[in-house]
Design brief:
The complex is a heterodimer of chains A (746) and B (216).
Chain A: H1 3-21, H2 27-42, H3 48-72, H4 75-83, H5 90-97, E1 100-104, E2 106-107, E3 110-111, E4 116-127, E5 130-141, H6 157-173, E6 177-183, H7 195-207, E7 213-221, H8 222-229, E8 233-243, H9 247-254, H10 265-274, H11 279-285, E9 290-292, H12 304-325, H13 330-338, H14 352-367, E10 374-376, H15 380-439, H16 451-455, E11 482-483, H17 488-491, E12 496-497, H18 498-504, H19 520-527, E13 534-536, E14 540-542, H20 551-562, E15 568-575, E16 578-585, H21 596-612, E17 616-620, H22 632-635, H23 637-650, E18 655-659, E19 662-664, H24 665-668, E20 677-681, E21 685-687, H25 691-698, H26 709-715, E22 720-722, H27 727-739
Parallel strand pairs in A: 5-6, 6-7, 7-8, 8-9, 16-17, 17-18, 18-20, 19-21, 20-22
Antiparallel strand pairs in A: 1-4, 2-3, 4-5, 10-14, 11-12, 13-15, 15-16
Helix pairs in contact in A: 1-2, 1-3, 2-3, 6-7, 7-8, 7-23, 9-10, 12-13, 12-14, 21-23
Chain B: H1 4-13, E1 16-22, E2 27-31, E3 39-40, E4 54-60, E5 63-68, E6 73-78, E7 86-87, E8 92-99, H2 102-113, E9 115-118, E10 123-127, H3 129-138, E11 144-145, E12 150-156, E13 159-164, E14 170-175, E15 182-183, E16 188-193, H4 198-211
Antiparallel strand pairs in B: 1-8, 2-4, 2-7, 3-6, 4-5, 6-8, 9-16, 10-12, 10-15, 11-14, 12-13, 14-16
Classes of the chains: A alpha/beta (746), B alpha+beta (216).
C-alpha cells in the first residue's frame, strides 16, 4: 500500500481522536501527535523497507493507544463522538444493515423535512433452500455527514408528522418498524402542527401501534428522541447518549446563565456525568433493553463488523417481540433468550390477538419503569391496605360498569328505541285525543312553564362574580399598593389597586382583560365545590434518583415552601355535583417540572379515574418541562403518562386539559398535548421551548407574543381560551357537552 | 426655499437632539442612572421588545414604575431633585442628549428643504405604472412632477383610486413609502425638490455623508 495514503489515514485517525478528546489534556493523544509528526519528518530520508516497517509500528501504536483511550472515555467524550461528522448515520445503516431499501418522500434537501428519513427496507434471510424477504419500515433522524440542511437531526414538526404517517402505513401493512434515534432534540418551531403537539400526537399513536417497534438509540435528545423512540425493545449503542437535555443546556440551567453566556467546560463535564446519559447508565436504570458494543472510540462508516452486529441485534429483537406475543413460539423463544442474535426464522406479521397482547405488553413494560426514582415512605401495612382497596375498587368497577353496566346500557337503549317507535304510533292518535280533551271544561291548562325565562335574553349575573364573594382570596389582595398592567403602554390601562384587582376582580385587569398570575389555591377553592376535594396518592414523594449535586437541598426547600411532596397534586373533587379526577401541576414546586413522582401520581390518578369511571382534568398551573436533575427518569414519564392517557381514553374516559400561566416542553409534548380537549386561561403561554432555548438552538429571535394563548389557539394547539372568572361555568359546560349524556364517561 | 447651508450650520452647532424625560404621573422619584454624562441606550431587539436603560423609578401607591430611555445618548442634565422627592405629572426629570447619526441629519435636512406630499388617507400607495417603471429602472430623481399630475394609486378595501399631486413642480428626491405597506394619513409619501436646487441638495447630502462625525 502507498505510504502516503497510509500516513493520511493516520492523520485522519489522529484528527478524530483530537476532536473527541479536544479540550482535555491527554498524554496519549499528545504522544500520538508527536510520534506521527516525528515519523512524517523522518520518512523522506528512510529507505523504503525501513519506512514501511516503522509505519507498521506506528499503526500498531495507534491501535494500542486507541484501545487505551477507549477506557478513558468520559460521558462528555461520548457526546462528542455522537456529534462528530464521522459518526455513522442512518444512510450508512440503511446501506449496510438492510438488504434493500427505498427512501420514501425525500431526496436530500428536497423533502418535507430532510432531517427525518423514512425508508421501506428488506431484510433477506436464507433458511435451508428458502429465501425469506422480510419487510420493515425504517424511520429515523438523518444527520448526514456534516450536511447543513438537515439541521443536525433536529426534526421539524412536519418531519415528525411524516414519521407518524409512515408508522400508520406500517401498521396497515402489518410490518415491523425499526426506528433510529439520531437527534440532539426537536426543532423548536411553533407553526402548525406545533413542535410539542406533534410529539404528543406521535407518542399517543405509538402507544397503540399494533406492530413490533424496535428503537436503536445513538443520540437521544429528550422530546425529539421520544417522538419516534417509544418502542417494544430499545437498543442503545455503547457510545451513544440518551438524556433529558444536552450537557451544555443542563450546565446553563445549573449555572443560571442567561442571554447566550457560555457555560464553563468543567461544569458541562460535571453535568454530563451527573445526568447519567451513557448506555451503561440507561441499561442499569432499565430504560434501554440492550446495549450494543461499538468499535473502539465509536462506530464510523468503515466499521462493517459493527453493522453486521447491529443487523443481528435488530433482527433478534424483532423476532423476540413477535415470539413473545405469538401463540406458537416453542423453542425459538428459548433459543433467542439464550443467545442474542441466534438466527432462527420468525414470521413478522401478527394476528389480531397477538396485536392486542403486544400493546398490553408495551403498556406494562413502560408502567414498570422508574419505580425506584421516587419515594414512597409509607409502612408496608398501609401500602398493603391500599392495594387491597384498589383491588376492591377494580372488582366493584368490573361488576358495576362491565358486567351490570353493559347490560343496563343495552336494556336502556332498547327501551329508548321501543319508546321512540311507540311515539310514532301513539303520537298521531294522541294529537286528536289531546285536542278533544282540552276542549272539555274540567281539564286544566298546563301552561305553567316559565315563559319569561325562555323568551328573555340572558343577562350578566351580577350576583356572585362581581361582589367579591370568592371562596378564596389571594394573599396578594392584602397588599396596599397599586399594580400596573403589563399592557398599559399599548391599551392604556390605568393602575389598579391590589385589593380590588386580586380580590374582587380575580386578578383580571379590568381595562384590557390581562390575567395576572394567581396561586393554585385560588382555583382549588373557587372552581370546585366547597369541601369536595379529596386528595389521593399524596404520599408519593419526589426524590433525587441520580444523586445530582445539591438537588436534595433544592427539593427539600420546594417541599417546605409548598407543603407538598411533589409538583403534582392529585385529587377527586366535584364541580356542581359532578365528580372529577384532577391532576394539578403546580408552578411553585420547582417550576412545575415533571419527574418520576409526578409521572407516577399522574398515572395512578388516571388508573383510578378509569376504574371509578370519572372524567379527568389536568389543571396545569404552570410547568417548565421535565425535571432535568432526574435525567432519563424524567423523560421516560413522557411515554409512560401518554400510554396511561391512551388506555384511559380508549376505555371511554373524558380527558380535559386546562393550561394556566406558562406551560412548556416535555409535559406539553406528551400527556398534556395528546388530549383532544385542551383549553387555556387567558394570558397563558404555551409552547415547546422557551424564547431563550429557541434563540440558543436556532439563533432566531422570536416575537414577544410567540407563545401566547391566542397564538396557540390560531395554530390549533388548544381549543379555546377561557376567562378565569368563568372557568367553573366553562368546565361544567365542557363536562356536559364533551362528556355526553352520562356527564363524564362515554 | 430654506437655506440648506444655514440649516447645516445650525446642526453642526448643536449636533444632537434633546429628549426631555418628564414624569408621566405624580409620585416619589428615584434616579437610577448615574450622573450627567452617563451613557444610555434605547430599546433594542427585533421588535424593540427589550427596554432601554432604566433611568428613573417613580413610585406611586407602592407601585414602583420604571422609566426607560427612549433613545441612545448621554444624560445631559438632571433635575435637581433628591431621591424620594415627590414630583407632579409632567415635571422635568432629566434631559438626554441623542447625537444625530448621518442618516438622521440627512433626513432632517431633506424634510426641511424638500416639499413633502402627505398621504391624503390611510391605505396602500403605488406609483402609476409609467412612473413606477421609471422609478424602478432609473431612480426617483428622474421623475418630474407638476401640480395636478396623476402620480399615485391609492389601494384600499379592494378599490383603487388615482391620487393627483399637489404642490410645487420639481423632481422626486426622496420616496418615503414602500409598495404594499399601509401608509397612515398625513405621513409623507414623497419629497419634491425644484430642479434648480437639486445640485445644491445633492452637494449638501454628499458633504454630510463625508464630513459628519458620528459620536457613540
Amino acid at each position: 500500500m502507498d505510504i502516503e495514503k497510509r500516513i493520511q489515514e493516520l492523520r485522519d485517525r489522529l484528527k478524530y481522536i483530537q476532536d473527541i478528546f479536544g479540550p482535555d489534556d491527554n498524554s496519549n493523544v499528545a504522544m500520538l501527535e508527536a510520534k506521527l509528526g516525528e515519523y512524517v519528518a523522518r520518512e523522506p530520508g528512510l529507505p523504503k523497507q525501513e519506512a514501511v516497517r516503522q509505519l507498521k509500528t506506528l499503526e500498531e501504536l495507534f491501535s494500542f493507544l486507541e484501545r487505551k483511550l477507549e477506557r478513558d472515555l468520559k460521558p462528555m467524550n461520548k457526546v462528542r463522538i455522537v456529534r462528530h461528522p464521522q459518526r455513522i448515520c442512518l444512510k450508512d445503516i440503511l446501506e449496510n444493515v438492510y438488504d434493500n431499501y427505498t427512501e420514501i418522500g425525500g431526496q436530500d434537501d428536497y423533502s418535507i423535512d430532510p432531517s427525518m428519513l423514512i425508508a421501506r427496507a428488506y431484510i433477506t434471510r436464507r433458511r435451508g433452500k428458502k429465501t425469506h424477504n422480510q419487510a420493515v419500515m425504517v424511520i429515523g433522524q438523518e444527520k448526514g455527514h456534516g450536511q447543513e440542511f438537515r439541521n443536525g437531526g433536529s426534526v421539524k414538526p412536519w418531519g415528525n408528522a411524516k414519521a407518524l404517517h409512515y408508522m400508520k402505513v406500517a401498521e396497515t401493512e402489518n410490518i415491523p418498524i425499526h426506528t433510529y434515534v439520531f437527534t440532539p432534540g426537536s426543532y423548536p418551531i411553533e407553526d402548525y402542527p406545533g413542535a410539542a403537539q406533534q410529539i404528543a400526537r406521535n407518542l399517543y399513536e405509538m402507544a397503540g401501534l399494533k406492530v413490533p417497534v424496535v428503537a436503536v438509540i445513538s443520540e437521544g435528545g429528550s422530546g425529539g428522541a421520544e417522538a419516534i423512540g417509544l418502542a417494544d425493545t430499545r437498543i442503545m449503542m455503547s457510545h451513544g447518549y440518551y438524556s433529558v437535555i444536552s450537557p451544555e443546556g443542563a450546565a446553563a440551567i445549573e449555572g443560571r446563565l442567561r442571554g447566550g453566556q457560555r457555560a464553563e467546560p468543567k461544569l458541562i463535564e460535571r453535568c454530563a456525568e451527573q445526568l447519567k446519559i451513557t448506555a451503561d447508565d440507561n441499561r442499569a436504570m432499565g430504560y434501554v433493553d440492550w446495549k450494543i458494543s461499538e468499535p473502539d472510540l465509536g462506530a464510523r462508516p468503515e466499521h462493517y463488523d459493527f453493522f453486521r452486529k447491529l443487523r443481528k441485534s435488530v433482527i433478534a429483537s424483532t423476532d423476540e417481540i413477535v415470539l413473545n406475543v405469538r401463540g406458537l413460539r416453542l423453542f425459538r423463544a428459548i433459543a433467542l433468550k439464550r443467545r442474542k442474535g441466534a438466527d432462527v426464522y420468525v414470521r413478522w406479521n401478527l394476528d389480531a390477538r397477538a396485536k392486542e397482547r403486544l400493546v398490553w405488553m408495551r403498556y406494562m413494560k413502560y408502567r414498570k419503569m422508574a419505580q425506584d426514582a421516587y419515594l414512597d415512605k409509607r409502612h408496608w401495612l398501609s401500602r398493603g391496605s391500599e392495594s387491597v382497596g384498589e383491588l376492591l375498587t377494580s372488582l366493584y368497577s368490573y361488576f358495576r360498569y362491565d358486567l351490570f353496566g353493559k347490560q343496563h346500557k343495552k336494556v336502556t337503549e332498547l327501551a329508548e328505541d321501543v319508546h321512540a317507535e311507540m311515539q310514532v304510533v301513539v303520537g298521531r292518535s294522541s294529537r286528536y285525543w289531546n285536542a278533544l280533551m282540552s276542549k272539555l271544561p274540567f281539564t286544566k291548562n298546563k301552561s305553567d312553564v316559565n315563559k319569561e325565562g325562555l323568551t328573555s335574553l340572558s343577562a350578566w349575573d351580577d350576583g356572585e362574580q362581581n361582589n367579591g364573594k370568592w371562596q378564596y382570596v389571594s394573599p396578594q389582595a392584602k397588599q396596599d399598593r397599586a399594580v400596573t398592567c403589563p399592557n398599559a403602554a399599548v391599551h392604556g390601562c390605568l393602575d389598579q389597586w391590589a385589593p380590588d384587582l386580586f380580590g374582587e376582580w380575580a386578578g383580571v385587569c379590568s381595562f384590557c382583560g390581562h390575567h395576572f398570575p394567581m396561586e393554585y389555591q385560588w382555583y382549588l377553592h373557587n372552581i370546585f365545590d366547597p369541601g369536595s376535594i379529596y386528595e389521593v396518592f399524596s404520599e408519593i414523594e419526589s426524590a433525587n434518583p441520580l444523586k445530582f449535586d445539591g438537588f436534595d437541598l433544592k427539593l427539600d426547600e420546594a417541599k417546605r415552601k409548598t407543603g407538598h411532596k411533589c409538583g403534582c397534586m392529585t385529587f377527586e373533587a366535584r364541580i356542581q355535583g359532578t365528580a372529577v379526577m384532577v391532576a394539578l401541576f403546580m408552578g411553585a414546586f420547582r417550576g412545575g417540572s415533571v419527574g418520576a413522582a409526578e409521572g407516577e401520581k399522574f398515572i395512578r390518578a388516571m388508573e383510578r379515574a378509569r376504574k371509578k369511571q370519572l372524567p379527568f382534568l389536568s389543571y396545569v398551573h404552570g410547568t417548565a418541562g421535565i425535571r432535568i436533575q432526574e435525567g432519563v427518569n424524567g423523560v421516560i414519564q413522557m411515554p409512560r403518562c401518554t400510554m396511561a392517557v391512551r388506555r384511559y381514553t380508549e376505555a371511554g374516559g373524558l380527558y380535559l386539559v386546562l393550561y394556566d400561566t406558562n406551560s412548556y416542553a416535555g409535559p406539553v409534548a406528551s400527556f398534556l398535548g395528546c388530549s383532544p380537549y385542551q383549553f387555556a386561561v387567558r394570558s397563558a403561554n404555551i409552547g415547546f421551548a422557551g424564547p431563550g432555548v429557541i434563540k440558543e438552538t436556532t439563533g432566531m429571535d422570536i416575537p414577544p407574543n410567540y407563545h401566547n394563548a391566542f397564538q396557540a389557539l390560531s395554530r390549533g394547539h388548544i381549543q379555546g381560551i377561557w376567562d378565569r372568572r368563568e372557568i367553573r361555568d366553562n368546565l361544567v359546560q365542557s363536562l356536559q357537552t364533551m362528556g355526553g349524556r352520562n356527564l363524564y364517561y362515554r | 426655499m430654506i437655506d440648506v447651508k444655514e440649516l447645516l450650520r445650525e446642526l453642526r452647532e448643536e449636533p444632537y437632539e434633546k429628549i426631555i424625560i418628564r414624569a408621566p404621573h405624580s409620585g416619589k422619584v428615584e434616579f437610577v442612572t448615574g450622573d450627567v454624562g452617563a451613557q444610555v441606550v434605547g430599546p433594542s431587539g427585533t421588535w424593540k421588545e427589550k427596554p432601554g436603560t432604566l433611568l428613573v423609578r417613580l413610585e406611586r401607591e407602592k407601585n414602583k414604575k420604571p422609566i426607560f430611555a427612549p433613545q441612545k445618548g448621554e444624560v445631559m442634565a438632571l433635575a435637581s431633585l433628591d431621591n424620594g422627592r415627590f414630583v407632579q405629572a409632567g415635571e422635568e426629570l432629566m434631559t438626554i442628549r441623542h447625537y444625530l447619526t448621518r442618516e438622521e441629519v440627512i433626513a432632517r435636512i431633506l424634510r426641511r428643504s424638500l416639499s413633502l406630499f402627505p398621504a391624503p388617507e390611510k391605505g396602500k400607495y403605488y406609483f402609476v405604472p409609467d412612473v413606477d417603471i421609471k422609478v424602478k429602472t432609473k431612480g426617483s430623481q428622474t421623475v418630474h412632477v407638476e401640480e395636478g399630475m396623476e402620480l399615485f394609486i391609492l389601494s384600499r378595501m379592494k378599490r383603487e383610486t388615482a391620487v393627483r399631486y399637489v404642490g410645487p413642480a420639481g423632481i422626486i428626491y426622496a420616496v418615503y413609502f414602500e409598495s404594499n405597506d399601509s401608509v397612515d394619513r398625513d405621513s409623507p409619501l414623497i419629497g419634491v425638490c425644484p430642479e434648480n436646487q437639486l445640485g445644491q441638495i445633492q452637494e449638501v447630502v454628499r458633504r454630510v455623508q463625508t464630513d459628519w462625525e458620528e459620536r457613540d
